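Hi team, as promised in this morning's meeting, here are the two structures we talked about. I've kept the exact order from the run log so nobody has to guess. The first one is mostly here for context; it's the second one we should focus on when we meet again. Sequence first, then the predicted structure tokens.
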Amino acid sequence: MSAMRNVSWDRRTVLRAAMGMAAAGSLAACGGNTGRGSGSGDSLVQYFHAYGEAGTEQAIKRYAKAYKDANVTTQWITGNNFEQKLFAALLTKNAPDVFEFHPQIQLIKSGQVADLSDIIEPVKSDFNQADISSHTVDGKIYGVRMIDDPQFFFYRPSVFEKAKIEVPQTLEELIEAADKLTTSKVKGAFLGNDITTVQNPLIWSAGADTLTADNKPAFNTDAVAEGLTQLRGLFTSGNLLLDSPTDWWDPSAFTQGLTSIQWCGMWAMPAMIEALGDDIGVFPFPKVGSAGKQSVTNGGWSMFVNAKSENLEAAKAYVKWLWIDQKKYQEDWALSYGFHIPPRTSIAQSATKLKSGLPAEGVKLFNEFGHFDNIGWTQAMIAAVNDVMANSVRKDADPKAQLAAAEKKVDAELTKLFG
């Protein structure tokens, strides 16, 4: 499992309670019972997915150990099903007190996550305001953003130059580039093993959106359908890497020369630079259709407090200490293991590692084309669009019919959430 993956990684429908209980039973084996503080106060458990960058698990446990007001145990959850294990555990009495996830309104509507306005308000102006907005419902802020993770296409300028290829501005140009760059040993492009990671950028780049500002489905458009048809063409062309040993969030397919273009995240830049030097460039997901606009996914992770925790105040105090007060740890987490953009403006502005070269290009694309989490876009909605990708790109179903079916499912979810 690698670095900070975006909301769309390996999404499945939220587990039903029965499945959840069963999965939670096996959770005791996950992670390790280390990272306890020296304090004699409350005991807290925090859940993290297993980040791919070396040193991340040790860092989180080191921060926890430095906290003196509670004993903090870290469950470091490996494998591709962090979300399933988290959602299952939240239904049991062994639920974590503190956990990382993405802002999603069903967690608020179900009373699962605590209102953190009181700890964030005093420093609210020092956060990227898009991160504040994406965690706010009815004026209350739920969750503290830890890192922002832009995702884009990586390529090697020397390879493009040799093949006389310009950086693709449109999806057609990307497909042509993949064709020109494919050889018997190297595939032209890699969009992840199941391609779902590019579903949101495809929607945004086609000039559409997941939801409107007043929470209505906004993705079922002719331009999105046309983009799906084009992706289907790419999928069947033989120019796409479809069986990479590691998935899109790991840079290996690119650094080992299995593909010439890879969708990946900014977190992978240090590993890429170590492997390939400065012969690396990035570009956004290209325009889809004439009304489209290039787009960059801004993924990332946030820290939440379980509203049903028996140690609610202690959990909030720990989150405030680590993710509000301890700027040195926040900076360490964002910049020492992979490259992430600190959501705290003051830390981002002093982050010298992001000021030049490839990271600076990434920051520029993030600022110009980035799309942040939509708190109304839930697991079930993500799963509905995953099905569109599976059926119309990997199989050969009609994109318009698939989008209409997904819209129906998303509408039903929105009705449940908003009435």
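And here is the second protein, the one for discussion:
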Amino acid sequence: MGKWTTWASASAVLAAVAGWTLGAAAQQPPIKVGVLHSLSGTMAISETTLKDTVLMMVDDINKKGGLLGRKVEAVVVDPASNWPLFAEKARELIQKEKVDVVFGCWTSVSRKSVLPVFEELNGLLFYPVQYEGEESSRNIFYTGAAPNQQAIPAVEYLMSKEGGEVKRWVLAGTDYVYPRTTNKILEAFLLAKGVKKEDIMINYTPFGHSDWQTIVADIKKFASAGKKTAVVSTINGDANVPFYKELANAGIKASDIPVVAFSVGEEELAGIDTKNLVGHLAAWNYFQSVKSPVNDAFIKQWHAFIKNPKRVTNDPMEATYIGFKMWTQAVQQAGTTNVDAVRQALIGQKVKAPSGMVSELTANHHITKPVLIGEIQANGQFEIVWQTKGPVKADAWSKYIPESAKLTADWTYPWVCGNCEKPKYSQ
């Protein structure tokens, strides 16, 4: 037998083996990714884009050959801004659809709703939005900001000479877990910094609130005391549109009473006439205006997928992108989608983020993130006016709340939660 014949025979065998392997991989069931975001109701204005982001990441990984030689399939449900329905849909995704991981939730009340389900059924949830902290679960990975990665730095900035040396504070939020707990932390922080209690005004409104005339008038009156005043906004969802409109109607400019928002990004501004909002602020860990090669590629990938060059990127999208990357890296490292193996492999995963910095998933199930303050521009984008020198490690438990100050969270093997002997979940 000649060399050519031998080589050809060997090549045929290898080709047959390869074909069999690819065929076997193709016959394997897909790896299922659950998408648990509101596509209707008051939170659809914010959450629909995150559904699209997960679909973009699934599309991208399938173009690269899938994961572990298997196709990745997104299973999308709509909990419709209905908090109890989130729990029902989470159970459906894990038990009926047999998803390997879930990316979802925006509000903390929706996360609180699903948390017992994920713990009971040992599922994995990636939560991509800034939140109030005061929680630690072995089944949740928090890729949004904790208060020390957003709220506290934003207030410190406004207190500084660079930020205007603010002396009076309006803490305005939607009436649910995240704003109430965040404001509890901020109030304690402000008092610790020597701010008098009478220089702090706190106000809550329901989801979808639309009549802001009286509240804005109260804010204007509160600011008339002669001390520099700022509004710290944890208002969520579509209530932001009439809130900012009423500020403009009342003649309140950013130079008079600046508003720093924690839930208003590029996506929300796309639905608002921004000419009266110029100069107001937002604190996030990413803005579309960030200059970095990774961000350029992220924006390009988003526009190519969504087929609309006008669609913006925002912070929770970046957090979703980071979480998805970390999960796929952990699956590849573990060689399986087994929840226990993937959970263990996730700790220590690093991703070059569109923010321009490297994010790392730490043992408390949060990621390191830079903090950025952006000023609203007329085109609906943000000009970055301040940022941390490097990524900030998240505190799952705030040192400004006495009952939490000594608590830590450490989910390294064998998944014992540090000093969280009896985790105190905010209500």
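Starting points for discussion:
DSSP finds twelve helices and 14 strands in the chain.
Residues 3-8, 13-22, 417-427 have pLDDT under 50 and may be disordered.
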